[in-house]
Specification:
alpha/beta, eight-stranded parallel β-sheet, 14 helices, binds zinc ion
């Protein structure tokens, strides 16, 4: 039995049913699970002092394309709209292979960890030159994050009127075969799982209607989740109406793409009927505010979604369209964006923090994560609020979102300390950055 006691935090934000915040609070970890939360706890194990800190559940990232960290701030894509942006980047991504996928994933995962993330999904939808989902899984195992990779896919290439070059698309039979392989090889349905696989055709317009339906059937057969991009911008809606004769929500529902085991990225353009559909069916949303700003897609109706009871989590989205991957800053952006659209009382700092933690855990169907309560997994972020960012703050919990810091002091995943005193403990970060920059230079 191993114990770690996080002791005397300025505040422990539990995100439990009563949303308790415990001043001078402790969290006791035993064998990767939270054993107790309260004041004056004791241990015979090790102690991590947390005076001057706020302790929160680890943040949850519900949408990312980790392979894209190698193509941040690419000149031709900096100011382009979604389709032009994709056409700039596809030829570069087509040159990637297993090493690029592995290294860029490690960089993205390390960046997430340093910004307080303990659980992340990933959406990998291209597999050039022998790359496999397994490359990202190996990357996550080394960084130490809890990982929900999704096996993405594109099957409609240029010669079929699609956007991606033919070299980046796959045959649909081969896609389904590899979906089965990765689920059978890696998916862990057990409570406390460090790795769960999902199925994720890239978007309704990069695969056929048949593949969408087949993927949904396969996911239900295997008991895994479904994920894709939906209703991202006006062009997306226009395409759906022209090609499918219906809005994206209807298309998703017709093909089995609604339900508690489905979550969609963006959903910027959901209308009232679609919000109601998502609420009734338990369908989740990955809200990606920085990406939506970066690509000029619009402001997702998060206030209306939350009021209707839709499950909403946050996503940093791929680093090519953010271009940062800092999850706590994403929570801040979510708050700011709702206020731009709906006024200063549209989202409180505590609600943004709730979406970033509990909200994401609900979207990913992880009732064992997202809050600090006995029996939950020990995924915990410790934020040092004694620094310049928080100096003068009257409310250390709200200041996490309104002021900073933007990096964690310590991060625990399944009770393992993967960030210690602000440094990644699992990897040699300077070496990783050097390796990433060396790879990036090959494509410039
Ligand atoms: Zn995306």
């Amino acid at each position: 039995m191993s114990e770690i006691l996080i002791r005397r935090a300025d505040v422990v934000v539990t995100m439990d049913g009563a949303r308790r915040e415990i001043a001078g609070g402790d969290v006791l970890i035993r064998d990767g699970v939270i054993a107790a939360v309260g004041q004056g706890l004791a241990t015979t194990g090790s102690v991590v002092e947390a005076a001057g800190c706020v302790v929160t559940p680890g943040l949850v990232n519900t949408h990312h394309h980790l392979y894209q960290t190698l193509t941040r701030a690419v000149p031709g894509g900096q100011d382009a709209l979604l389709f032009g942006w994709l056409q700039t980047l596809y030829p570069i991504w087509a040159k990637f292979g297993p090493e690029e996928i592995f290294v860029s994933a490690q960089v993205g995962l390390a960046e997430l960890a340093l910004s307080g993330c303990t659980l992340t999904s990933d959406h990998l939808y291209l597999f050039p030159n022998g790359a496999r989902l397994d490359d990202t899984i190996a990357a996550a195992a080394e960084v130490g994050l809890r990982f929900h990779p999704t096996r993405g896919a594109m099957s409609i290439g240029e010669s079929d009127g699609g956007l991606p070059p033919d070299s980046l698309v796959e045959r649909e039979a081969a896609i389904l075969e590899d979906c089965i392989r990765v689920v059978d090889a890696h998916h862990d349905a057990a409570e406390g799982a460090m790795l769960r696989v999902g199925l994720a055709p890239c978007s309704p317009f990069s695969v056929s209607r048949d593949l969408m339906r087949e993927a949904a059937l396969l996911a239900r057969d295997k008991g895994v989740m479904l994920h894709t991009h939906l209703a991202e911008n006006d062009e997306d809606i226009a395409y759906s109406l022209a090609k499918f004769g219906c809005r994206p929500g209807q298309y998703a529902e017709d093909l089995g793409w609604t339900g508690a085991d489905v979550w969609h990225a963006h959903c910027v353009k959901l209308d009232a009927g679609e919000i109601d559909l998502f609420a009734r069916s338990g369908t989740g949303v990955a809200h990606c505010p920085c990406s939506n700003c970066r690509l000029g897609s619009g402001i997702a109706p998060v206030r209306a979604m939350r009021d209707a009871g839709v499950k909403v989590g946050l996503g940093v989205d791929g680093s090519a369209s953010n271009d940062a991957g800092n999850l706590v800053l994403e929570a801040r952006q979510a708050l700011l964006l709702q206020r731009v659209s709906k006024g200063a009382n549209a989202m409180a700092a505590r609600e943004a923090l709730e979406i970033a933690t509990l909200g994401g855990a609900r979207v990913l169907n992880r009732p064992d994560c997202g809050s600090l309560e006995p029996g939950k997994r020990a995924d915990i972020a410790i934020w040092d609020v004694s620094g310049i960012e928080s100096a003068g703050s009257w409310d250390p919990v709200a200041s996490l979102i309104l002021c900073g810091p933007t990096r964690v002091r310590d991060l625990f995943v399944e009770g393992r300390r993967i960030v210690a005193e602000g440094q990644l403990a699992t990897l040699d970060l300077p070496r990783l950055i050097e390796r990433q920059n060396r790879l990036a230079r090959r494509f410039i």
